[in-house]
Amino acid sequence: MGAAADCSPSEMMIVAAARALSNDDVCFVGIGLPSAACNLARLTHAPDITLIYESGTIETKPHVLPLSIGDPELCQTALTTVPVPELFAYWLQGGRITVGFLAAAQIDRFGNINTTVIGSYGRPTVRLPGAGGAPEIASHCRQVFVIVSQTPRTFVPQVDFITSFGHGTGGDHRQRLGIRTAGPTLVVTDLGVLRPDPETRELVVTSMHPGVRREEVAAQTGWPVRFAPTVEETPPPSAHELAVLRDLVARSAPAAAPS
Amino acid sequence: MGAAADCSPSEMMIVAAARALSNDDVCFVGIGLPSAACNLARLTHAPDITLIYESGTIETKPHVLPLSIGDPELCQTALTTVPVPELFAYWLQGGRITVGFLAAAQIDRFGNINTTVIGSYGRPTVRLPGAGGAPEIASHCRQVFVIVSQTPRTFVPQVDFITSFGHGTGGDHRQRLGIRTAGPTLVVTDLGVLRPDPETRELVVTSMHPGVRREEVAAQTGWPVRFAPTVEETPPPSAHELAVLRDLVARSAPAAAPS
Amino acid sequence: MKAAERIRRKARFLSLSEAVAEYVRDGDVVAMEGFTHLIPFAAGHEVIRQGKRDLTLVRMTPDLIYDQLIGMGCARKLIFSWGGNPGVGSLHRLRDAVEHGWPRPLDLEEHSHAGMAQAYAAGAAGLPCAILRGYLGTDLARVNPNVRFIDCPFTGARLAAIPALRPDVAVIHAQRADRRGHVLIEGIVGVQKEVVLAASRAVVTVEEIVDDLRASGPNAVVLPSWTVDAIVEAPGGARPSYAHGYYGRDNAFYAAWDGISRDREAFLAWMREHVLRSGGGVRVPGSA
Amino acid sequence: MKAAERIRRKARFLSLSEAVAEYVRDGDVVAMEGFTHLIPFAAGHEVIRQGKRDLTLVRMTPDLIYDQLIGMGCARKLIFSWGGNPGVGSLHRLRDAVEHGWPRPLDLEEHSHAGMAQAYAAGAAGLPCAILRGYLGTDLARVNPNVRFIDCPFTGARLAAIPALRPDVAVIHAQRADRRGHVLIEGIVGVQKEVVLAASRAVVTVEEIVDDLRASGPNAVVLPSWTVDAIVEAPGGARPSYAHGYYGRDNAFYAAWDGISRDREAFLAWMREHVLRSGGGVRVPGSA
After folding, report:
1. Closest C-alpha among D182, D174, D246 to residue D211
2. How many whole angstroms from its chain centre is CA B148?
3. Strand A155-156 relative to strand A184-188: parallel, antiparallel, unpaired?
4. Would you put residue C278 in left (φ > 0), alpha (ψ -120 to 50) or beta?
5. From residue B97, how far is each of A256, B66, B184, C6 by CA, in Å?
6. Using 50, 70 and 90 to split pLDDT, how confident is the model at B31?
7. What SS3 string covers chain C?
8. How many C-beta neighbours within 10 Å does residue C265 have?
9. Which of B231, C219, C223, D135 could make an SS bond with D141 (beta carbons 3.0 to 4.6 A apart)?
10. Residue C155: which residues within 8 A CB-CB, separation 6 or more?
11. Chain D neighbors of A80, CB-CB under 8 A
12. Does the annotation count B54 as an active-site position?
């Protein structure tokens, strides 16, 4: 599979995210970019990956990308569909999920996620949709992957509101709260990949996509971002990966296709 | 419907119990005598009564009396069958049941029921089956009916073990425990009918079956039983009631038929 | 929310206007549920036409129907866990109410999906509260006084507690009911059973009323007649959401709503044209 | 009970003897569930043939299978909520163990059905405890230290709390599994889903292994392959209980068991004839 001619940063991001998933994963899928990445993984190297959406659809295999978390396609292609209280109690809180895949409006240097408000909670400048399943996805899945475009607006030193707890103020903050899961272990953006420092849990750039320069990454990050001792270059999408992704997007409802 | 020639005390007991149920009742049915009484009601004056068994079978209409709480017949003739945790949480604890119909190994003057042990709990002389659904049936149903043969062994001053709380030590004991339901309001035996005194909640004889004498009732009760100012005579089973009951018993598995 | 009187007579078959007039009252805590699937749009539109006011709206995912109710000034408070246009973006009427108080200020009580789903389940189960391992480290617990923490009496583990949700009235849409009033729901069943069992009153709109419920198997999701107050035949009553086995989701409309709802006048014009037309005498926000 | 490692590989297809040998261990907390329906007799008999010892047996309704395990000396403790022969009378082997310590003393932990069902649900849900409105005024709360009471942090209402049930191994019988290892259960589903999700290990015997699971509708009760460790094809594995859609309950045998089990020698003779015969080298109580 030779490298693809050219691809958009968004395509590179989705491909890089898809590669992080394995065939054995049981994945709790957020809508939008996470859904695109998880289904790309299923349609390429991880055909047996188990995808679960918060609408209660378990082991679903959508032919097209769903627009909403509960599109008919998800139920029609699922192994089974359970009530929403059962999904969150037995399947998520029960600890059966290996990877929770989330998007974010804001993410900070310690991987805390904000999808609630920009500004103060009482008088927000922007009212965002809110939590949905994310707070418990972030605390109950064995690990959390985040996929989000990297800009100074999204990558902030500290989120305005902690909707989903990542590594808090860093270090062993999760353990101190009695949270036993790993939290955000991977953040994939349109520029590269960040992972938490093993000690401080600060997000550090470990890989950059082809053609991306450090200055660019620094300029698009709201804090003085650190780079790993060795920063790899993300292998470009293979022709196959790109073809499958473009097919998937093309056959999906326009509104459901990631821009 | 003329009075039936002759019937057994057990038949009189089941008929009298069945008559206490109405067409609008949603009834949580214990196995054995309660099941016979509830289904007789359904097959006579209360065709639309809703019967629920603790196996999760809701609005079931068994053609024969089930031997167990979960016979195939119960599921096959039910409107729907729900998981057991749901049955106890949403349907019983949720407060949707008008009448809980129980049997008893021991019942005391305040309607407390023992189905756990005769003797001390640590070294019982007789180990009985235990609680099953009864403790929460007794506290969550709007009212509780009890059907049990009357002997000094079953009608005791105080039960050896409170498996299901009736009126405790009497008076407002239920309210003092924060229990909002009426508890045992009717006890039907092979000799007559007892109801709690409105004030003291002591079980008092309010009706005797045809041919039963006060001395007999007193002799079969383990405490100095009181009689209501006016004790009625239970109307004997009608020919129709008796015919339907005998058909039901005859077509049921011998082991399921109340002796 | 009043304590629910949980034992009901058999359901009555009413028209949509009768059911909403009788069972949805000004000031009520109203929960119209349906998780993406089976959203009771027809019933919600009737609530708007009847000009219900001061409602506390409860719903995990407010979706377009609550955007419309909020934009038409029916609500004083929203209890929710995710308030967006799924896969599209913001709910602009919800944002306008929260950010600018138009057409009136809107109080928010905000949870996570896990918390709200368990709060409905606790309501159905007659419990005063739900417990879950949740909200740890989040600011939701800071801004919402209805998120508290207790210790497990056996392990000492810290558990979040939320008050049970016990709406005054639940409104859902289902596939069908039989003539005895039993209701069948299948596909994505969300929290519909829980909200009906948790509420003091329950209105169910259905695609069709049939002789045979055609439940799929012994464990199908069925609400017995005696758990429902009113059943309304409302074919297409979930559009532009969908009804599994009847019609699909109108994703194009969900995308189009973004444009319709951004502008107050465009929104009001759309509502007049598509919702109010069939009814009369409705207070339109700003028209007072 | 150890904390469950909840994430499993796909299920393996094993023989009954392999599955019991590998997944049921001396000293385990074992829950063989099935509420009257789908009771895993074949698996229980294999546990007896393999002479497992010092088991803590967990089951809402011990039924005949636990009467047999207890009578054969496999158990040191029983956690249960109703221990009778349904519709017939006593479990005589259970009574003999409790009343006379034969073949060995049996510790009891006793709950109500409501408490035990919620304790399984809490185990499945990864909660340390379950809460319910229950046990009020009963002596069960007095004799069972695992029944405690907490106050609702919102209303102050008194609520019973029970530790979550997290068995080392769950054993259930189901109608069928497909070749990927997904399991279908229908009819009276009891607490089977809960016990499998609550346990550290799960063994499922099935009537048949098929290409198509033939689930009835989108909301059928299905246990995905990755929630089960071992699947065993065991046709008739629930007899003398029953399998909805396959065979009925042998009520006559349940009645006959009363006579068989009253006498120790008659019981042992029956077990030798009908259970042990097919296996060897088993310690029979009193034969030491």
Report:
1. D182
2. 7
3. unpaired
4. alpha
5. 46, 21, 14, 9
6. confident
7. CCCCCCCCCCCEECCHHHHHHHHCCCCCEEEECCCCECCCHHHHHHHHHCCCCCEEEEECCCHHHHHHHHHCCCEEEEEECCCEECCCEECHHHHHHHHHCCCCCCEEEECCHHHHHHHHHHHHCCCCEEEECCCCCCCHHHHCCCCEEEECCCCCCEEEEEECCCCCEEEEEEEEEECCCCEEECCCCCCHHHHHHHCCEEEEEEEEEECCCCCCCCCCEEECHHHCCEEEECCCCCCCCEECCCECCCHHHHHHHHHHHHCHHHHHHHHHHHHHCCCCCCCCCCCC
8. 8
9. D135
10. D128, D129, D163
11. 215, 218-222, 224
12. yes
Strands, E, within chain A: which ranges? 26-29, 50-52, 57-58, 80-81, 99-102, 106-108, 113-114, 117-119, 124-127, 143-147, 155-156, 184-188, 192-196, 203-208, 226-233
How do beta strands C75-80 and C201-210 pair? unpaired
CA distance D74 to D51: 7
Residue C4 is predicted with a pLDDT of 40
Q: What is the pLDDT of residue A136?
A: 97
For residue C95, give both structure tokens.
Answer: 């944002």
Statement: residue A1 has pLDDT above 50:
no
Q: Which residues of A are catalytic?
A: 54
**Phi and psi dihedrals of D99, rounded to 5?**
-80, -30
Q: Distance from D281 to chain B by nearest Cα, in Å? A: 33
Tens-digit pLDDT profile for residues A126-177: 999 999 999 999 999 999 999 999 999 999 999 999 999 999 999 999 999 9
Task: Indicate whether C200 pLDDT > 70.
Answer: yes
Exposed / middle / buried, residue C10 (Cβ in 10 Å: 0-12, 13-18, 19+): middle
Residues D162 and D150: their CA atoms lie apart, in Å, by 10
Asked if the Cβ–Cβ distance from D132 to B93 is below 8 Å, we say: yes
* CB contact at 8 A, D14 and A104: no
Residues lower than pLDDT 50 in chain D = 1-5, 280-284, 286-288
Residue pair B146/B100 in contact by the 8 Å Cβ criterion: no
Asked whether residue C96 carries a pLDDT value surpassing 70, the answer given is yes
Beta bridge partners of A107: A113, A155
Which of D131, D189, D218 has its CB closest to that of C127?
Answer: D131
Q: How far apart (Å, rounded) are the C-alpha atoms in residues D186 and B76?
A: 11
**What is the predicted pLDDT for the residue at C8?**
60
Q: Which residues of D touch B55 (CB under 8 A)?
A: 35-37, 188, 190
Residue B143 CB neighbours (<10 A): 16
D9: which residues sit within 8 A by CB, 6+ positions away? A24, D226
Q: Is the ipTM of this complex over 0.90?
A: yes
Residue of chain D whose Cα is closest to the Cα of C164: D154
Which residues contact residue D145 at a Cβ distance below 8 angstroms, ignoring those fewer than 6 apart? none
**Residue D49 Cα distances to C197, D42, D274, D276, D282, angstroms:** 47, 11, 11, 6, 6
Residue of A nearest to C109 (CA): A130
Q: Where are the extended beta strands (E) located within B97-138?
A: 99-102, 106-108, 113-114, 117-119, 124-127
Q: Give dist(CA A55, CA A75) in Å, integer.
A: 9
Q: By CA distance, what is A160's nearest residue in C?
A: C139
For residue D149, the chain C residues in CB contact (below 8 A) are 153
d(CA D219, CA A82) in angstroms, rounded, equals 6
Q: Would you call D217 helix, strand, or coil by DSSP? A: coil
Do the Cβ atoms of A90 and D226 come within 8 Å?
no
Per-residue CA distances from A241 to A13, A19, A38, A42 (Å):
12, 10, 13, 11
What are the tokens at D214? Answer: 């033939």
Range name among C4-18, C146-160, D213-227 with the lowest pLDDT average = C4-18
Q: Cβ of B143 under 8 Å from any chain C Cβ? A: no
- C-alpha C221 chain-centroid distance: 18
